[in-house]
Amino acid sequence: MAGIDIEGLSTVYPNGVRAVDGLDLSVADGEFFALLGPSGCGKTTLLRTIAGLENASAGKVRIDSTDVTRLEPGKRGVAMVFQDYALFPHMTVSENITYPLKVRRAPVAQRDEAARRTSEELSLQGLLERRPGQLSGGQQQRVALARAIASEGKVLLLDEPLSNLDARLRLEARTFLKKLQRDLGITTVFVTHDQAEALALADKIAVMQSGKLRQLGSPREVFARPANTFVANFIGSTPMNLLDGTIEPEGVRLPGGSLPAATGSLPVGASVTVGVRPEYLTVSPSGPGLQGVVVVTENLGTISLVTVDCDGTLIGATVPEEDEPAPGTPVSLMAAAPRVLLYDKESGELLAQQPATV
Questions:
Q1: Same domain, 127 and 106
Q2: Residue 15 and residue 221: Cα distance in Å, rounded?
Q3: What three-state secondary structure class fits 122?
Q4: Per-residue pLDDT of the chain (358 residues; tens, 9 = 90+)
Q5: Same domain assignment for residues 250 and 210
Q6: Which intervals hold domain ABC transporter (predicted)?
Q7: Residue 137, domain extent
Q8: Is residue 203 located within the same domain as residue 281?
Q9: Rg (Cα) of the chain, in Å, rounded?
Q10: Contact 206, 35 (CB under 8 A)
């Protein structure tokens, strides 16, 4: 296996668009690494530049400590699974799996063994003589993965491989993909715009915006401590509450009351943006914190999202479904100080005095 090191990488298209803009990051040997961001943020271009399918305008790409920036794709030791799987419709599953080895003129015995081994790993034994048109979406995805694994690359690159599956198949494929990657121990870079996939699968996540890296960290770090308001808005199945606040001696003043916060050396009266996830707010019939009235509830299965009007500002909080308050109910909202994050009003960056623990 191999790690990936990217140094000052830029990819600029002929029309002048900087799809990747001066990026630095490293992927550890055997790591499951997610590139996450909205459409057009540059994540797929970055993946294709690692693969050699796009030319780097500046910077370097190293795989297993070897500079591959100017090498053609076939010499980089990478295997890639495309969003549409890119299977050959006229070939059988077995022929699709072994095609990269055939191109390299590997002996027939080696190709047959690769087809046997990977078909067992991905539960494709009974499908080897079928063609892609006779397979379901989930089966086609596994064939594409089998072809990538059979090519014996040092690095596996995945470009939104779950996006063409329905909701149930996506969940099944996500579980399968994570187990497969752990069993193989292969360094994997996974592109997705779905933050739930990234949080569930990755050891580390890079959040991108407009070709730049906005945050790099573990799923827990990115979720619990977004480095800026862009990441705070993007990550999470329920949007983070981002509120105008004012520093008080022991916390922050917000619409409807106050919350405790680690304010450090910030002066009393300073204006900040306060971020607190709905999952970290507790809802009580009465007590300290923010006072408001429930305006709407949304059942999300085992939990409910409660929207509370606090002095004209709508704030979301989650509660167990059995504790869902009725609209019109007065409630109090409270959060522990480490869960209340303070961001600079101008830059949107997390202020330095925030505690390091998540």
A1: yes
A2: 36
A3: coil
A4: 689 999 999 999 999 899 999 999 999 999 999 999 998 899 999 999 999 999 999 999 999 999 999 999 888 989 888 877 788 899 998 888 888 888 888 888 888 888 888 888 777 888 888 998 898 888 888 888 888 888 878 899 998 887 777 777 777 778 888 888 888 888 999 998 888 889 989 999 999 999 999 999 999 999 999 999 999 999 987 889 999 999 999 899 999 999 999 998 899 999 999 999 999 999 999 999 999 999 999 998 889 999 999 999 999 999 999 999 999 999 999 999 999 999 999 999 999 665 555 5
A5: no
A6: 4-235
A7: 4-227
A8: no
A9: 24
A10: yes
- CATH number (domain holding residue 31): 3.40.50.300
Structure tokens that stand for 297 in this block: 């509830």
Same domain, 221 and 296: no
Given a contact cutoff of 8 angstroms between Cβ atoms, the answer to whether 118 and 186 are in contact is: no
Amino acid at 62: R
Residue 358 domain-assigned (yes or no):
no
Report the distance separating Cα 245 and Cα 273, nearest Å: 6
φ, ψ at 19 (rounded to 5°): -70, -35
Q: How far apart are CA 6 and CA 134, in angstroms?
A: 40
DSSP 8-state class, residue 225: S
The answer to whether residues 146 and 20 belong to one domain is yes
Three-state DSSP at 140 gives: helix
Left, alpha or beta for 167 (phi > 0: left; psi -120 to 50: alpha)? alpha
* Three-class DSSP category at 111: helix
Report phi then psi at 340, rounded to 5.
Answer: -100, 110
Q: Is 278:316 a contact under the CB 8 Å cutoff?
A: yes
Are residue 299 and residue 337 in the same domain, yes or no?
yes
**CA 174 – CA 197 distance, rounded (Å):** 7
Q: Which helix (H) or strand (E) holds 101?
A: helix 93-103
According to DSSP, the β-strands at 32-36 and 4-12 are: unpaired
Q: Indicate the length of the chain as a whole number.
A: 358
Structure tokens at 14: 């002929």
Q: How many domains does the chain contain in total?
A: 2
Per DSSP, the residues of 153-172 read: -SEEEEESTTTTS-HHHHHH
Tokens representing 91?
Answer: 């070939």
Tell me the DSSP string of 275-292. EE-GGG-EEESS-SSEEE
Report which of 249, 294, 295, 257 is spatially closest to residue 276, judged by C-alpha positions: 257
